[in-house]
């Protein structure tokens, strides 16, 4: 536990409560040039290098591969083209393997990934007892929270990219890439189609930011990372269930998951950017509320472990 | 957590050992002030959501007054403008929910019977237009391009190409230039409103009721209230754009529910500019199955006969009309109800031809527009028709009845069907 190395430099009792820390007239910290970048780099190395996370990325990358192989080997059978969403288009154009994989991962696998990444961010450090030593180094709490948020976002981005890249490669090898047939039945050139699919991947990635903020907030509430992870996944699932109830028509557009499937807008002949930006706006609203909640909680909480 | 420790330990050498290291660099905010930040964020989000509608309704009373006659005339004389926009169609008919299978969120015209659907509309105001019914991850498009038309369903990747027989094309051109114009069947608010207005005068009170804002544009509201007190239709409200004189929204209110319209179709977003050519043309994608349908034109003799029949007011065989105006009840005998529900095109075509109204002309037009050709409705074929009938029709003495907020349907055991915008009791009385 090399975090413990930091201990001799500080009196742990001085950081057990924020109020104690605040009440003590600490000498003004001289910002160390590059410290933030260093902290961020080490966090990214930590998040992207952790074995558990690498296994998760591999698993997500296996989804398009599995999907592509299943479609490839069943394409001459009676079951060809049967399946959710965009599966039917995959055999015609490998590019759609990216879209179909993202579509398949959206309801559960991606929220699970977000839950693991963001739920673990603060609570993981707290549960292993390293959080207070991190704060003693000294790193401001706001700054640490920002670094943790960026780390979680980076991992989610890596997850979405893993699906997209494996989907693209597998799709290209198994089915080839052609001009893209839109949902409207019109055909656009491959380059324009690839740009649209890239837009879909970006939209899906950004659609996860609200859930990252929610998970980060949960992560500041507990010292049990599993609790924060599970709560985050539950929020996504409950939101998805509420979205199916017609009685909640008035609030449904504001639900976290309501606009996730709006990525289909990018496959229409003339995308309505209002719809796309509206979906991202809802995510921004969730980020604003829950990131500020996480910040308020984390900067006022007693950190004792 | 060894890896974490190693990763972060690089930081140690950079920092100065301080006795009280965890103190925040800026101590300007008390804990209470910190908790105020999320509260402020939540309020800001709430204001961003609630704000625009409040703001929009604040300043929309600057339109000069018009009489209903002026308004109707303006609408009728105005040519259909080139436009593009998003139309939301909502039906709250109070029908029992119909189990249409897993296609609930997909772009299938059948979903127009209940719930809310979003359409996107492009029109150059003349011969070319595109309407797309949007599903969550699917789309059903209807493209009219001069004398040909296409439909495309993304769910089954099927294209249907409607053309006019080359021999008939010349006739069509002649008709288009000198004869009665062949009208396209777009589900636009324009068509719906024109029909409602034409129907309105004699049996209804027509008034202009203030102003409103639809899709961010100022609009007059034309209110058509039936003089009859026994019909289920409370009123029909048409919002007409105050500068383009084009209907932007049609609402049909039930007499029994004054909080929300039973049927509503209107723009949520509209712009009066000519859409680009790429939207108004269609070429079938490679790999899609294309079904060719050649639409036969009626011969001149047939047209003449049809017009004759129309002016005579003669009814097709097996159809009886009771009452008049809003209380009209149409009785069909010898209809194969189960066949029609199963999507048998023949039974359905027959039914459609005879069925003049569901609640109002406008509502009927809208419903028809999306199932214009019977072959589309054949998609319903997967549903067990008798189970469907059981789920929406209540048994009553002598038959079964379907009730909704706007219309009632009575299916008698001896094979007659009575339809009207009246209460089921009235239908039973007539049967």
Notes on the structure:
The complex is a heterodimer of chains A (305) and B (431). Chain A contains twelve helices and two strands; from the N terminus they run ααααααααββαααα. Chain A has a two-stranded antiparallel sheet with strand order 1-2. Chain A has 305 residues and is mainly α. In chain A, a hairpin with a 5-residue loop joins strand 1 (180-181) and strand 2 (187-188). Chain A has helices spanning 18-23, 35-49, 51-74, 87-90, 95-105, 109-127, 131-136, 141-175, 190-207, 209-221, 225-242, 273-300; strands spanning 180-181, 187-188. With 431 residues, chain B is of the alpha+beta class. In chain B, 30% of the residues lie in helices and 29% in strands. Chain B contains 13 helices and 18 strands. Chain B has helices at 2-9, 31-58, 68-77, 166-177, 189-200, 277-280, 300-312, 337-341, 345-354, 361-369, 374-377, 385-392, 424-430, and strands spanning 83-91, 115-123, 128-134, 139-145, 148-153, 158-164, 204-214, 217-226, 233-241, 247-254, 263-271, 289-295, 319-322, 329-333, 394-396, 399-403, 408-412, 416-420. In chain B, helix 5 packs antiparallel against helix 10 (361-369). The radius of gyration of chain B is 28 Å and the shape is globular. The interface between A and B is large, with 82 and 67 residues.
Main features:
heterodimer, A: 305 residues, mainly alpha, 2 strands, globular, B: 431 residues, alpha+beta, six-stranded antiparallel beta sheet, 18 strands, 29% strand, disordered N terminus
**Rg of chain A from C-alpha positions?**
22 Å
- Mean of pLDDT of chain A: 85
Number of DSSP-assigned strands of chain B:
18
The shape of chain B is globular
| Unreliable parts of chain B | 1-25, 99-104, 179-187, 342-382
What's this entry about, in short?
Chain A has helices at residues 18-23, 35-49, 51-74, 87-90, 95-105, 109-127, 131-136, 141-175, 190-207, 209-221, 225-242, 273-300; strands spanning 180-181, 187-188.
């Amino acid at each position: 536990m090399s975090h413990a190395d930091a201990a001799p430099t500080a009196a742990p009792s001085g950081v057990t409560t924020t109020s104690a820390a605040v009440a003590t007239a600490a000498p003004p910290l001289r910002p160390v040039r590059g410290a933030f970048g260093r902290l961020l780099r080490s966090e990214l190395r930590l998040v992207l290098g952790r074995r558990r996370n690498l296994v998760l990325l591999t698993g997500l990358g296996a989804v398009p591969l599995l999907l592509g192989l299943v479609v490839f080997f069943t394409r001459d059978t009676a079951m060809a083209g049967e399946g959710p969403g965009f599966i039917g288009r995959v055999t015609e154009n490998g590019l759609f393997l990216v879209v179909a994989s993202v579509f398949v991962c959206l309801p559960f696998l991606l929220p699970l990934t977000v839950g693991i990444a963001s739920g673990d961010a603060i609570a993981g450090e707290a549960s292993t007892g390293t959080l207070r030593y991190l704060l003693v180094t000294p790193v401001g709490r706001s700054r640490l929270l920002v670094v943790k948020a960026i780390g979680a976002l980076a991992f989610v981005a890596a997850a979405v990219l893993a699906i997209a890249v494996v989907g693209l490669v597998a799709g290209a090898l198994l089915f080839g890439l052609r001009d893209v047939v839109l949902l409207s039945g019109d055909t656009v050139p491959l380059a324009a189609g690839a740009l649209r699919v890239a837009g879909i991947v970006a939209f899906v990635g950004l659609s996860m930011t609200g859930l990252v903020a929610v998970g980060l907030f949960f992560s500041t509430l507990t010292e049990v990372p599993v609790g924060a992870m599970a709560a985050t996944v539950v929020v996504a699932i409950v939101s998805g269930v509420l979205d199916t109830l017609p009685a909640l028509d008035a609030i449904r557009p504001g639900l976290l998951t309501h606009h996730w499937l709006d990525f289909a807008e990018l496959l229409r002949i003339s995308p309505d950017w209002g719809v796309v930006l509206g979906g991202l706006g809802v995510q921004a609203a969730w980020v604003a509320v829950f990131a500020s909640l996480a910040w308020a909680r984390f900067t006022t909480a007693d950190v004792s472990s | 957590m060894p890896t974490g420790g190693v990763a972060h330990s690089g930081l140690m050498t950079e920092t100065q050992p301080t006795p009280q290291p965890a103190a925040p660099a800026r101590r300007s905010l008390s804990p209470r002030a910190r908790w105020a930040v999320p509260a402020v964020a939540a309020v800001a989000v709430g204001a961003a959501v609630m704000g625009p509608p409040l703001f929009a309704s604040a300043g929309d009373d600057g339109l000069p007054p018009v009489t209903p006659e002026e308004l109707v005339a303006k609408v009728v004389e105005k040519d259909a403008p080139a436009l593009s926009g998003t139309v939301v169609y909502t039906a709250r008919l109070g029908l029992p929910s119909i189990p249409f299978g897993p296609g609930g969120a997909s772009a299938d015209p059948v979903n127009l019977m209940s719930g809310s659907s979003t359409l996107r509309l492009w029109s150059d105001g003349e011969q070319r237009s595109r309407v797309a019914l949007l599903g969550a991850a699917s789309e059903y498009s209807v493209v009219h391009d001069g004398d040909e038309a296409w439909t495309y369903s993304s769910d089954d990747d099927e294209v249907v190409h409607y053309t006019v027989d080359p021999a008939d094309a010349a006739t069509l051109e002649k008709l288009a230039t000198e004869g009665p114009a062949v009208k396209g069947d777009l589900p636009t608010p324009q068509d719906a409103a024109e029909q409602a207005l034409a129907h309105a005068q004699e049996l209804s009170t027509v008034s202009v009721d203030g102003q409103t804002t639809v899709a961010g544009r100022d609009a007059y509201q034309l209110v058509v209230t039936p003089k009859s007190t026994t019909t289920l239709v409370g009123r029909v409200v048409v919002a007409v754009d105050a500068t383009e004189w084009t209907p932007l929204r049609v609402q049909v209110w039930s007499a029994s529910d004054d909080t929300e319209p039973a049927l509503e179709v209107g723009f949520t977003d509209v712009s009066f500019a000519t859409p680009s050519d790429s939207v108004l043309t269609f070429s079938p994608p490679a790999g899609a199955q294309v079904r060719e349908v050649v639409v036969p034109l009626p011969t001149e003799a047939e047209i003449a006969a049809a017009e004759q029949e129309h002016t005579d007011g003669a009814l097709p065989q097996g159809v009886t009309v009771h009452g008049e105006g809003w209380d009209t009840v149409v009785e069909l005998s010898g209809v194969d109800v189960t066949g029609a529900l199963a999507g048998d095109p023949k039974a359905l075509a027959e039914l459609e031809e005879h069925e003049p109204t569901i609640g109002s002309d406008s509502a009927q037009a809208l419903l028809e527009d999306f199932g214009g050709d019977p072959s589309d409705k054949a998609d319903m074929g997967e549903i067990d028709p008798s189970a469907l009938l059981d789920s929406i029709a209540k048994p009553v003495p002598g038959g079964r009845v379907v009730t909704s907020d706007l219309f009632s349907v009575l299916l008698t055991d001896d094979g007659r069907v009575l339809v009207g915008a009246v209460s089921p009791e009235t239908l039973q009385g007539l049967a």
